[in-house]
Amino acid sequence: MKNNFDEIIERKNTDSLKYDFAVRRGKPEGILPLWVADMDFKSPSCVIDALIEKSRHGIFGYSNTREDYFNALRHWFSEQFSWNVKPEWLVKTPGVVYAICTAIRALTEEGDAVLIQQPVYYPFSGSVIANRRKLVVNQLVYSQGKYTIDFTDFEEKIIKNKVKLFILCSPHNPVGRVWSREELVRIGDLCLKHGVLVVSDEIHADFTFPGHRHLVFADLKQEFSDITITCTAPTKTFNLAGLQISNIFISNQNIRRRFKKEIAASGYSDPNIMGIVACRAAYSGGREWLSELREYLLDNLNYLRDFLKQRLPQIKLVEPEGTYLVWLDFSALNLDDKKLEDFIENQAGLWLNSGTTFGAGGEGFQRINIACPRSTLEKALIQLEQAINRL
Asked: pLDDT averaged over the chain?
């Protein structure tokens, strides 16, 4: 590989949320963090070079995007997903969670029902509740090591609660599903049938494992495009979360108008100049870096799978189809969630994401981020093995 993903890069004392705020968040000093979804890898050199060049210019005034920015996006989505986006669809926001909250306020009224599929990325539920909407859950079904959708319950929840908006997580965080065409079409058809609008969070679209392909929900049918806000960002793909840039695509003119009106009401206008520079550079020149990263992540997944099978059979891997966030089943340890959390943090010395934070169905699970050098992953697994052997 041209890129050295084995390199250990010191992140302590860099204002890193992942590394510098453990004690402030109630965790033990010196805990090994594999929780929040950023990577322990440098961003592509093309991004770093572009940011350095902009820094040398020395002026960081109000900025916006030109045609070259959209062209980089257009080429990326066309090549990666055969999705042809149009310039007028694009709305830029500082993040996907910001976009989800904006969509909730723009497309529903206080007290309206919003549907999510737990266990799922925890800001989904937080965004619904914080905006004083009714949270409705279609819990995913876990059986024989895989998650599926209960479509009967999905439709019943829509009807019973008069659901106005559905937040789709695709690929799914944390259970790792890359939804099939059949599943996505069935979701879309039910939403069309009952007049439900869709916010599709596709931030992890660039990470799928062999045998799986991400499908853009809005691109499956014209009717789906007409009811969907598609949330994308380069931040997970190229490790740019701190630069706060996301690209939201809305083909329906009325929905886009309402969405932009709500953005204006929040006081946000022009995007972060460094986010613009990084996004354009990443989508223009980051293909080879991403290809090597995917290969490295696959090797990390294989290492994790083999380690668990050979040395920690008590912990079950929920086989991921996408993302670099892996969902682990700890239920065989027979610890309640409070004791499991204490065990992971204070006995194994690891900072993972507790399954309960992802909502219904998360009990007994933990989420681990494998986007780190192999030696870091190995250290974490050995610490876990030693702790379990002491149980």
From this structure: 98
pTM value? 0.97
Residues 155, 253, single domain; the answer is yes
Neighbour count for residue 202 (Cβ, 10 Å): 23
Residue 272 and residue 293 in one domain: no
Q: How many domains does the chain have?
A: 2
**Quick one: which H or E segment has residue 154?**
helix 151-161
Range of the domain at 320: 23-43+287-390
Asked if the structure places residue 132 within a domain, the reply is: yes
Q: Are residues 90 and 210 in the same domain?
A: yes
Domain of residue 358, CATH code:
3.90.1150.10
* Over residues 112-121, mean pLDDT: 98
Distance from C-alpha of 33 to C-alpha of 20, rounded to nearest angstrom: 10
Does 17 map to a domain?
Answer: no
Q: Which helix (H) or strand (E) holds 127?
A: helix 123-130
Give the model confidence (pLDDT) of 210-259 as tens digits: 999 999 999 999 999 999 999 999 999 999 999 999 999 999 999 999 99
Q: Mind giving me the DSSP string for 165-205? A: EEEEESS-TTT-----HHHHHHHHHHHHHTT-EEEEE-TTT
Instruction: Write out pLDDT tens, residues 165-219.
Output: 999 999 999 999 999 999 999 999 999 999 999 999 999 999 999 999 999 999 9
Q: Which of 131, 193, 177, 120 is nearest to 359 (CA)?
A: 120
Is 11 a domain residue? Answer: no
Backbone φ/ψ region at 211: left (φ over 0), alpha (ψ -120 to 50), beta: left
Which DSSP state fits 346?
I
Residue 247 burial by Cβ neighbours in a 10 Å radius (0-12, 13-18, 19+): buried
- pLDDT per residue as tens digits for the range 340-365: 999 999 999 999 999 999 999 999 99
| Residue 319 token pair | 């086989």
Residues 55 and 33 occupy one common structural domain: no
Are 262 and 338 found together in one domain? no
Judge if 234 and 272 occupy the same domain.
yes
Question: How many helices and strands, by DSSP H and E, does the chain display?
Answer: 13, 15
Tell me how far apart the alpha carbons of residues 291 and 118 are, in angstroms, rounded to a whole number: 31
Q: Which two three-digit tokens encode residue 203? A: 């931030």
DSSP 322: B
Contact between residue 336 and residue 326 where contact means Cβ atoms under 8 Å apart = no
